[in-house]
C-alpha cells in the first residue's frame, strides 16, 4: 500500500468524522460542549491536518491545527466544569425528615389503636451543605 493511499484514506476518515460531528450537533443529538463532539472534531482535524501536511497545503494544515487547539481547550473546560460540579455535589448531603402522620380520613378513636392506621409516613428530603 502506498503512502498516498494511506493519506487519502485518512482524508476520507477525517472528512466523514467532521461531517458526523457537525450533523450530530445540528440535529441536537450532541451538544457543542459534549466530549463526543469535541473528540470527533479533534479526530477529524487531526486526520485532515496530516493529509494537508503530507500534500504541502499549509493554510489547511494551520487551520486544522487551530481546530485541534480549540478542541483541547474545550475538552479541558468541560472536564474542569464536571469536576467542579462533582466536588460541589459531594459537599451537599441529603437529609431525610420523617414525619409520622395519620391520614385525615382516619377517625381519632382508631388512630391510637390500629397500627395500620399509622402506616402513612411522609418523607421530605432536602440537601444541606456539609
What is this structure's SSE topology?
Layout: H1 3-26, H2 35-54, H3 58-90, E1 92-100, H4 108-111, E2 121-129
Antiparallel strand pairs: 1-2
Helix pairs in contact: 1-2, 2-3
Question: Can you describe what's shown?
Answer:
The protein has helices at 3-26, 35-54, 58-90, 108-111, and strands at residues 92-100, 121-129. The protein is α+β, with helices and mostly antiparallel strands. A two-stranded antiparallel ribbon has the order 1-2. 62% of the residues lie in helices and 14% in strands. Helix 1 (3-26) packs antiparallel against helix 2 (35-54) and helix 2 packs antiparallel against helix 3. It is elongated, with a radius of gyration of 29 Å. The chain is built from four helices and two strands.
Essential attributes:
alpha+beta; 4 helices; 130 residues; 62% helix; two-stranded antiparallel sheet
Beta-strand content estimate = 5-15%
Span from first to last CA? 62 Å
Number of helices: 4
Rounded average pLDDT = 83
Q: What's the Cα radius of gyration?
A: 29 Å
DSSP, total strands = 2
Assembly type of the shown chains? single chain
Strand-pairing-aware structural class: alpha+beta
- How would a textbook summarize the main sheet? 2 strands, antiparallel
Based on Cα principal axes, name the global outline: elongated
What order do the helices and strands follow?
A: HHHEHE
Considering DSSP H and I runs of 4 or more, what fraction of the residues is helical?
Answer: 55-70%
Give the strand line-up of the largest sheet. Answer: 1-2
Unreliable sequence segments: none
